[in-house]
Amino acid sequence: MKRWIALLLLGLAACSGPGASPAAGPASEPTVIVISLDGFPAYLFQDPRLPAPTLLRMMREGASAKGMTIVNPAVTWPNHTTLATGVPPAKHGVLYNGLLIVEPDQAAHVEPRTRADLVRVPTLYDVAHQAGLKTAQVDWIPWQTGGTIDWAFEEIPNPKGAVEQEMIAAGLAAGNDFEEFKKGNIQWRDLMWTRAAIHILKSHQPNLMYFHLLNIDGTHHRYGPRTPAGMSAIALADARVAELLAALDQSGLRDRATVIVVSDHGFKGTKRSIRPNAALAKEGYIQLDGGKISRAAASVVPEGGTAMVYLRTPEAVAAAAKIKSLLGALEGVDRVIEPGDFAALGMPLPQDNPQMADLILVAKPTYGFAGPAEGEPVVDVTEGMTIGLHGYLADDPDMNAIFIAWGRGIRKGVRIESLRNIDVAPTVAALLGLKLDGVDGKAVSAILE
C-alpha cells in the first residue's frame, strides 16, 4: 500500500513538471490580456471584407468602439504609456519612442531607454503587483524587466532571461534565436513574441499581461495603409490573436480571461516628404560634415505628421521668429504650434519637461516630415510609391485606434461610438477589481457587465 501511494505521488509530481500545463487557478481570479496591434487604424473596420475573422468574431461576441481617440504625439511609446497609466504625456512624461537628448550645438536625437528612465507616474501593472496579482509583458514598450513585472519578454529578448531560457528548454526557440533576434524579419519576430506570450500564459498564468505586435506598423510604413501588403499584415496579426485565444482554452483560462485588443495609433498615406533640417542647413542654422550634422543651432525631430523644433542655443533663441517663419513657409506645412497651445494638445511645456519642443510643425494631408539635412527641403516620396506615416495630431480621425473587449466581464454585442485611450487602464483595473487613483481616464461602464 505504501509503495502504491509513493508511485501515485511520483506520478502526480511528474504531471506538474515543465512539460505539463499547470492547473488553472480559482475561477474567481481574473486574467486580463491587453494586446496592442501596432499601427492598426480604426477606419479599416469600415471595409466589409477585412481579412480579420478572429477580430470580427470578438467584436460580435464582445464589445467594441468605432474608434478610440489617442494622445499626442501619435507615436507608440507615448500611447502605450497612456494605455498603461490612464494619463496623457503631459503627466506621464513620455514624448518619443525613447529618450530625447538635446545638447547645445548638437542635433536633438532619440535614444532607447527603459521605463525607469521615462515614465513619471505609476502604471497599472505597478498597482496590480502591489495588490498581489501576477504581471507580465511581451514586447510592451517602454520595456521593463523585473520590479513590478513578474515575467518579461522584451522587444529585444535577453538570451539569458528566465522566460527565454524556459522557451529554449520547451523547444519553442533555439539558443541563437535570441542572440540574433534583430536579424529576424518582423513577421518572424511577431511569431516569437506570440510564442512567448502563449508560453507565459500556459506556464505562469498571469493576472495581467501587456502584449505588443509590430508587423502591421512596419508594413504600413513601407507600403502604406489599404494596400495589399497592409491587408496581408492585418490577416497575419489576426492569426496571431487566434493562436493566443486558443492558448486560453488549452491552459484552462478561458472562463476567467478578458482580452482587450487595441492599437496605438492610426495611419495616413503620404506622397511628399518635408525635411525641415535641410531648410535649416540652407540658412546656416545647421552645419554638415560629410553629410552628417556636425553643429546645430536649431534642429527638428520628425514624428511623421508632426515635427518637433528645438531652439536651445542663444543663436536660435535670438532668431526664433525667423526660424518659425522659415519652417512655417515650407511646402506642405499646415501650421506652427507655439507653447501657448501645448496644454490643449495634452503636452507639457519645455520648462516642465526638457524633452518637449519649442515649436511643433503640423503637416498637410499627403505630406509628412523626415529627418535628413541634405538636399532639398521638400521631395517626393520614393517614386511611384505611397508610404504610410502616423504622428499626425490626435484629433485627426485617421489617427483613431481600434478597441475590442471580449470575454469575462464584457457585455456581448455592444458597439459604442468612441472612447479615449486614457480610459483603457481604468477599465482594465475595474476588470481586475483594482482602482487607479489620480488618473484622467475612467472605466467604460457601457461595455462592462
Quick gist of this model?
Helices cover 31% and strands 21% of the residues.
Structure characterization notes:
With 449 residues, the protein is an alpha/beta fold. It is 31% helix and 21% strand. It is built from 15 helices and 20 strands. The chain has an eight-stranded mixed sheet, with helices on both faces. Strands 9, 16, 17 and 18 form a four-stranded mixed sheet that branches. A four-stranded antiparallel sheet has the order 12-13-15-14, with helices on one face. Helix 9 (186-204) runs parallel beside helix 11 (228-250). It is globular and about 65 Å long. Residues 1-27 have low confidence and may be disordered.
Features:
449 residues; alpha/beta; four-stranded mixed β-sheet; 15 helices; globular
- How much of the sequence lies in strands comes to 15-25%
Secondary structure class reads alpha/beta
Give the spatial strand order of the biggest sheet.
Answer: 6-5-7-1-8-19-2-20
Count of DSSP helices? 15
Please tell me what the overall shape is: globular
Helix fraction by DSSP (H/I, runs of at least 4): 25-40%
Uncertain spans: 1-27
CA-based gyration radius? 23 Å
